[in-house]
Amino acid sequence: MVFIWFVDVTYLFFLFQNISPYFWSSLGIALCVGLSVVGAAWGIFITGSSLMGAAQRVPRITSKNLISIIFCEAVAIYGVIVAIILQTKVEAVKPRDDGSYSLAAANAGYAILGAGSVTGWANLACGLSVGIVGSSAALSDAANATLFVKILVVEIFASALGLFGVIIGIIMAGNANFVGA
């Protein structure tokens, strides 16, 4: 037996109309910081474990390959910077008499949610890609010292993913205005 659950569209409209835009903006800011930090931590874990394993055999690679850890840490900093920018956009607005919020406040809340989500997910992907490339850089540098600079270029390209997320997040939140014009 198959159960089909239909949701009345007017109920969803009523639900989203009456949820505070501050909830959506807070969720966007939390996703921005949270996913960025998870991406940085995951990248550091991937790079650090390979770096420490390869450094047991070839100790000379330790100081050179710390740049991969720094690239991963920059991902968390990207998230914090965008979260600070998003937080400055939030303003105090009272709900209407029926409990709903103005269209400008709702749009601003959704814009901040979107900007934080895009930045957070981009930084998560950036942290993973930088971690994987950093792991490859450590292992290849241990095998052949001439490969380090070549793989470092690939790591810089992987790190650009986070910057793209930051730029898109700033553009998306650029017109967020809770008060409206």
Write a concise keyword list for the protein shown above.
single chain, 181 residues, mainly alpha, Four Helix Bundle (Hemerythrin (Met), subunit A), 6 helices, 78% helix, elongated
Description:
The chain is an all-alpha fold and 181 residues long. The chain has a single domain (23-89, 101-175), classed as lithium bound rotor ring of v- atpase (Four Helix Bundle (Hemerythrin (Met), subunit A)), CATH 1.20.120.610. It has 6 helices and no strands. Helix 2 packs parallel to helix 5 and helix 4 runs antiparallel to helix 5. It is elongated. The model has no long low-confidence stretch (mean pLDDT 88).
Can you lay out the helices and strands and say which pair or pack?
Elements: H1 9-18, H2 21-57, H3 61-64, H4 66-89, H5 103-143, H6 148-173
